[in-house]
Amino acid sequence: MADYIAFDNERALNYVAQLNEFFAPNAQLTCNEFGDGNLNLVFRIADESGNSIILKQALPYARCVGESWPLTLDRARIEAAVLEKHGAVCEPYTAKVLHKNTELALTILEDLGHMAILRGELNQATTFPNLGSQLANYLATTSFHYSDFYLTPAEKKALVIEFTNPELCAITEDLFFDDPYGTSLRNNYPATLESEVKKLQQNTELHIKVAKLKQLFLSSPQSLLHGDVHSGSIFVDAQSTKVIDPEFAFFGPIGFDLGSFIGNFLLNYCAQNARISEIPKRRQMQTYLLTTIQQVINEFAATWLSLAKAHTRDLSLQAPGYAEYFVNQIIKDALGFAGTELVRRTIGLAHVSDIDGIEDDAARLQVQQQTLVLGEQLVLHAETAHDKESAFNLIISLVQ
Ligand SMILES: Nc1ncnc2c1ncn2[C@@H]1O[C@H](COP(=O)(O)OP(=O)(O)O)[C@@H](O)[C@H]1O
Ligand SMILES: CSC[C@H]1O[C@H](OP(=O)(O)O)[C@H](O)[C@@H]1O
């Protein structure tokens, strides 16, 4: 990328000003870089009356590690294009792209600063009654419209090429399926967790189940996934939900997105054991988390089936009962992927503040022990879940 340069506040501001598109010509603009994610720069550019936009720019390396971890700038192209593709079929719940520049690896987005990132809100035990339904709608609508049920084979194959994302997929392949089950230097957990980690790493049955999940991830281009649906990729407020940050997008197994979401809700469920000391309050929060998981599974299935009934274009896939079979497989896959999310967020490179934000070492360790076992058990038993009811029952039996 000959014309690429990483922005600072001044460059980001000047870039936006010269576009002459978002602010009045004489506006007094300010710019502040405030990204807190693992990979990119995020600037807010605002005028004196509070109008603002977000400029997100990829760095040629992973921000959280530094220049020693080079990373393709192409992720910015993929992120912006996926937001547009997902927005085209699910506009209300997808962050809006206002401008993109592939050479500079940047995207300008609507500023969602009036909303809040879900992870921080869950950590404060704030609940969102519309979230389950809206996220289920996002997951079902986007995954249906970019699947073989809806696209022609030629359209699908062209999109698979457009959204081939080898470098970012390799990160997921390493962090989800390899590192935690071996002795990667990237793994990160306290010495006090060593005996539990050793046990997990020596479980040969678990290795086979993880291998099956990795194979699914590698070789199942079912639909255009978001690729990283964790609670840091979702903005919420009392009314609405907006999904951001699909730079890990690719054509993969639909259960991966659903499973990432379930895994993050279960991480928060376990963390609440240390976060909320008052038992009735804790139960209330944990009930909300479980009810939302159940709602997402149920409404995902219902929306997918109704879309399949009304809009399946492929003749063979219209066979009575096939969509039901397909959705049950997605849910089964999702439970396995949820398990890998729990394990990798506990002992792998990238942690979550739900757990790391617990100040007391002993309380944090107890949560880590729980998330590790819960993740392991989900991976081991996911295949026993043959429909949405048995999937939810499995989750309940493992958290109690
Ligand atoms: N459209 C947006 N509106 C407001 N804030 C945003 C927006 N997109 C990102 N952010 C802020 O920037 C942070 C990092 O963004 P994210 O897309 O997750 O970056 P990364 O790709 O580095 O993980 C988010 O946690 C959020 O605080
Ligand atoms: C070195 S990337 C680690 C981790 O970070 C990503 O999340 P985000 O960019 O949203 O913070 C993704 O989950 C990766 O697995």
UniProtKB/TrEMBL annotation:
Alphabetized PANTHER family for the sequence: METHYLTHIORIBOSE KINASE
Residues annotated to bind substrate: D228, R344
Lineage, broadest ranks: Bacteria, Pseudomonadati, Pseudomonadota, Gammaproteobacteria, Alteromonadales
EC number of this enzyme: 2.7.1.100
Signal peptide: none
Coiled-coil intervals, chain numbering: none
Keyword Kinase among UniProt keywords: yes
SUPFAM superfamilies tied to this protein: Protein kinase-like (PK-like)
Main function: Catalyzes the phosphorylation of methylthioribose into methylthioribose-1-phosphate.
One Pfam family matching this protein: APH
Binding site for ATP: N40, K56, E110, D111, L112, D245, P246, E247
Catalysis: reaction(s): 5-(methylsulfanyl)-D-ribose + ATP = 5-(methylsulfanyl)-alpha-D-ribose 1-phosphate + ADP + H(+)
Keyword Nucleotide-binding carried by entry: yes
Name of the molecule in the record: Methylthioribose kinase
Similarity section: Belongs to the methylthioribose kinase family.
Quaternary structure (record): Homodimer.
Pathway: Amino-acid biosynthesis; L-methionine biosynthesis via salvage pathway; S-methyl-5-thio-alpha-D-ribose 1-phosphate from S-methyl-5'-thioadenosine (hydrolase route): step 2/2
Ranges of residues in domain Aminoglycoside phosphotransferase: 31-262
Enzyme superclass (EC): transferase
GO molecular function, one term: S-methyl-5-thioribose kinase activity
The organism of origin for this protein: Pseudoalteromonas spongiae
Keywords from the named record: Amino-acid biosynthesis, ATP-binding, Kinase, Methionine biosynthesis, Nucleotide-binding, Transferase
